[in-house]
User: Which sequence fits this backbone?
């Protein structure tokens, strides 16, 4: 079987030059004279049934734009003798090179004659034709002598359009890819300035009829003012999805509260076929979003057993006194001023950090707060603020022997709104 030179031994490229301008541009080192290149013969039987045709307009030797692209099922006329004037680089959806092919330039014109006289034009239009492949995504056209990229042709779009109209073609597949779940989760609350981890679990499925199919899954998160996401750039992952076997993907984001209150975080997952030859006839289920309210608590200063230096907690000694201090912004390092007398006693919980984050803890024993001037953390002074004295039974789902921290979580009023607060103090828990 004879070799097809325009395919660089395998690719089947043809170039058909169209109408062009008449003025030539100066080139001190012109491309090789095509008359010196042997005219190849073509093996028409080896051509595939389909081809990709890109019509490209050259406005100059270094500037061009794509006029149209399409898939054809009939072989276009070829132009014999493809010298290395242009080079076509064919790549897949990942940017990996599939082939490189020499090509004729539409700026070159053969005038016939005994030696095939030539002329170079300032502009012209030509068709670049390559064989159809489901793996193709792009074609880059480069001037060989100048070693300069001229134009990149999107081949995925015409393949996608062809397969959408011809889903039964043997080179095309049909897979209804769908996002079936987006599930964000976060701790019970975050404290201003202290990062927390938010996890988003997504699931994608292939509803057929063809499978498996490679899916391209894009996951992204966004949040309103009051919440920053350290690693929130969109992430794209390629996964094979078989029929009846959904793929589950999980990603964790580092999130930090910057203002008190509840701030919404929205997670969005999109799925598309990785290959343009895979048709997804149901695009409505290709994207799904879910919103999670993240509770942002203000840090508070608490004093376990005011007046005690050791904070020994005996679980069998009944009520444990805990003071929540009224503080100004910056006092004890707290970024937000709080008035402890605005605490809603019904929201209060006392417990170890793990119990508080689990949503449990001891409740306020007396069913109220006691406004008073609580002794400060240095155990020696009282300021002029009115604080809140609270009372808890620590053995009631609050603390256990071995705990070294006791924390209070609840809600109070800040700038006219009820927001969460959280504060901890060291303890020594005994039976």
Assistant:
């Amino acid at each position: 079987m004879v070799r097809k030179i325009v395919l660089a031994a395998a690719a089947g490229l043809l170039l058909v030059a169209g109408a062009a301008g008449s003025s030539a541009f100066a080139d001190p080192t012109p491309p090789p004279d095509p008359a010196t290149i042997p005219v190849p013969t073509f093996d028409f039987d080896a051509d595939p049934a389909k081809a990709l045709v890109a019509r490209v307009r050259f406005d100059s030797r270094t500037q061009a734009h794509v006029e149209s692209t399409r898939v054809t099922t009939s072989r276009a006329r070829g132009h014999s003798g493809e010298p290395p004037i242009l080079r076509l680089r064919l790549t897949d959806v990942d940017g990996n090179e599939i082939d490189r092919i020499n090509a004729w330039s539409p700026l070159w014109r053969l005038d016939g004659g005994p030696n095939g006289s030539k002329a170079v034009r300032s502009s012209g239009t030509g068709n670049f034709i390559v064989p159809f492949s489901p793996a193709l995504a792009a074609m880059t056209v480069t001037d060989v002598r100048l070693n300069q990229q001229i134009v990149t042709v999107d081949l995925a779009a015409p393949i996608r359009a062809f397969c959408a109209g011809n889903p039964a073609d043997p080179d095309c597949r049909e897979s209804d890819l769908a996002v079936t779940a987006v599930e964000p989760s976060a701790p019970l609350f975050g404290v201003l300035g202290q990062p927390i981890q938010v996890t988003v679990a997504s699931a994608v499925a292939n509803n057929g009829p063809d499978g498996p199919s490679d899916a391209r899954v894009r996951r992204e998160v966004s949040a309103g003012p009051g919440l920053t996401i350290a690693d929130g750039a969109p992430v794209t992952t390629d996964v094979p999805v078989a029929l009846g076997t959904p793929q589950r993907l999980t990603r964790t984001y580092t999130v930090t509260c910057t203002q008190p209150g509840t701030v919404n975080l929205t997670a969005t997952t999109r799925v598309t076929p990785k290959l343009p030859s895979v048709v997804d006839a149901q695009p409505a289920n290709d994207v799904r979003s879910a919103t999670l309210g993240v509770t942002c608590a203000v840090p508070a200063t608490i004093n376990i057993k005011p007046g005690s230096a050791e904070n020994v907690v005996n679980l069998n000694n009944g009520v444990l006194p805990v003071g929540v201090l009224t503080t100004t912004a910056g006092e004890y390092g707290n970024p937000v001023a709080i008035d402890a007398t605005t605490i809603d006693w019904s929201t209060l919980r006392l417990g170890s950090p793990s119990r508080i984050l689990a949503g449990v803890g001891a409740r306020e024993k007396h069913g109220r707060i006691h406004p008073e001037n609580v002794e400060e953390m240095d155990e020696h002074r009282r300021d002029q603020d009115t604080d809140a004295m609270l009372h808890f039974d620590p053995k009631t789902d609050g603390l256990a022997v071995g705990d070294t921290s006791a924390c209070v979580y609840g809600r109070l009023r800040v700038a006219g709104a009820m927001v969460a607060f959280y504060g901890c103090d060291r303890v020594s828990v005994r039976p």
Residues 5-165 form a domain with the Immunoglobulin-like fold (CATH 2.60.40). The radius of gyration is 36 Å.
